[in-house]
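Here is one such tokenized protein:
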Amino acid sequence: MRSLYRMGSIALFMGVLMMDVALSQDSLDLEVEEVYVPREPTKAELKRYALNDEIEGLWGAIFDDVNNGALRQQIAQKYNQLNNGDIAEHELNRALELGIPENELLADLGRSYLLQNKMDEFFEKISIENAATHIHGETYLVLGMAYEKLENYEEAFLNFYQAEVLLNDHPDLYAPMARLYSRIGYYDRAELYVDKALSLNGIDPEFLLLKGILVERRSGSTNSYQYFERANFHKSDQIEIESKLGSALYNLGRHDESMLLFRRILAKDSRHPFANFMIATLFAEGNNIRTATRYLNQAGLTAYGNYPPALMLWGKLAYATKDYDSVIAPLSDLIDIDPDHHEARTLLSAAYLQLNNPMAAAETLNYLSGLDILSELDHILLGSAYALAGDNDNAMLNFSAASEKKSENLTGQEKDILNQFQRGDSFGVVIDLPGIINKTQMNSQKAIIDVNNAIDKKDFEHAFSIAADLVNNDRNNAVGYHLLGLIYLEQGRVDEARSNFRRVIELNRDFFQARIQLARIDFALNNPNSAVNHLNSILNRDESYIPAYELLYEYALSRGDDIRAERYLSAAISANPDIITPRIKLIEYYYERNVVQRAIRRAEQLLQQFPDYSIANFLLGKGYLLSGRINDAIGLLKRSIEIDPGTRDSHLLLSEAFISKGLISEAREALGRGMPFVEDRVPLILKSIEITKIDRDFKKAYQFANQLKLEQETLSIGNILQGEINIVEGRFADAIDAFLRAQKAGASDNQVLYRLAEAYSKSGDKDHAIEIASSHLAAHENDVNMRHFIALFQFENGNTEEAIFHYEYLLDRNQNDIVANNNLALIYLQQEDLEKAYQYAFNAYNLPDFNVDVAKTYAQVLILQEKLDDARNVLTETVKLASYDIEAKSLLATLE
């Protein structure tokens, strides 16, 4: 629209200039002739012109044969198409009088009744039982139209569906089927019909609006905006279209234009709830809390009392104005509607703390504690609530979790929540945790918070002074001794730490966190019996205490005791059937060991209990993908992303699923849709570059790299990715330049040098490549990427003993290194040592993540060992999971 305004202003300016010229040149008697430029007619207008021509022809035929009933029916059908129902009904009655059987006229008669809104006559006469067999499709169609008109959508859908079966792609079905499929949630089918409807009339505002809504649901405002804008252009006075366009502009960050549209709506309807709500949101984001509150009140609690975003906004505005009592009602209503609403629970808990109600705060957030989604901030709030309520063990447990869960480890969704509250830059909400804590005079509880903050900052002197004061004031203060133990442990002073933790247990045998710390110390000092005794003491008192099971599990894993590790997690699940964390750990444990079917069974149970959790859908989707149930996997991974678009691994796995079906463009689109939402985009971009190796679409790959180069903080990554693409494309000199630019932009040697060495090697400058690699590895022997480069370099250049040395070095440090296992198998294949080749190929193939090249290596070994049935099974599964791989298909064909 902005471009139209600019055009208008230019036209006005030019008009003034032309007027001045005309006035100054009267003496020349010049006349400016206006020229009319006709516009092209629309498809709808062309169709109407054609119908009028056909009607004119039919009238001519009727004048020549006035008793021809078939001509009367034909002309009635044309009038129906022109929406002239009364004329159509008249001509159909004439056709009946002239001998056309009524059962052949019912569908056309039904249309004429609908156009005149004669619903009683319609249902009195029109039924499928009375219609001739050859017009059943048309009759079902008009019955569907009638039921849709009466808003009986179930009956409408049933009739339209029957019509669809019989009429097969009838244009009159496009519009109603689009509406109904959208209404019942079959959005892909709805969009298919919308596209068909728009192919007939590309300027229909109703379908441009519906197309925008469907695209918004599928891929966000960036792609939906154009449809809302076009709908608004063709019908600029419709509030629903303006609302959708305003929302899209808001989502795109074009807040001034969004505000303009919503104000335009209020000019027509000052009480419009959604417009008031959106203006309140816009003012709130500008920190204009008072004005935001006024507009939100105009939106009305009755209109938006069940709308989560409005309830959340009410809570935020009340918190921002320090009206903590008024926070409680809307956010309590919100978590009644959506018990898993993370943001609402965080703010509601903070409000309870502000009102000095720590147990309510703890109960509010503790609901999420078993779901593995609490952020660092949540744990601090929860720890503070428990501390202020006097529950020292749970306070310590949550402060420990907060220390372990630093912000750099958060998902994109968690980081959004954390930043929103910590910075106070969204709706003016700042939690002000120090202010909450300072409201109480409970010294021990305040000390827990202050000491944990000091330990986190490595300010041990300050932490020690706080804890020591507690003990000096009360020699029986278990909290003080525990804090001293934590400080000593953080400093590496194990004996002092253990002494203090033992003193805690003497004073309070149910202070479980002290026993946990003693168990950790004993495990570290290789005294497992004592450690297990501490943990058993906890479980004897509280068999549901998850930290004890987790520590036993970690120890069993460190000892390679998989049976006990599995047993501990299973016991934790049995003791805590409603907590998701141990279930997730057990499923991931099975996947890491490639026990896929057992993982699937557990994941199916998890999804049954937690259907609306992204992680539950992801874990089952992963299992189905690994077991070859690709379509089921795609559905679950899409659902995982729908619940939480910030789940990076779901986007990656969804692209893998599409690749396995040979749907390469869909795989790339899946990665592109994840880019705006995930915190770390680099793995998605790297995956897109892998796809480039398949589809050779370098243009899209370069677009990703260039996007990253636009911002200083991602400039180095953008150049690295450009270099990666250059290598795939065979432009090795350009790759070298890109990697050198990345180095200048701040990329580390570990990020750049192995890639630079690879580029030099592929360009033919092998001496320079090995010189860079060898000198770097000499100073950084644990650089895995560089060692991989040198191993492959030596392998490709015939130095197999050197390659074997480096690959075995890598396997000594990580026996699950898939590349090292696979390439050692290839080396021993070359050397015709089938026994060793089989050993390494088997190891690589049985690792959890599927890799088509690894599968082909394993199949080749099996073929040479004459295990043809095994090779056939491996290749059959490989082709199922990587249908695009021609080599795998060819290899399988040789065995059939």
Summary: The longest helix spans residues 2-24. The chain is about 75% helix and 0% strand.
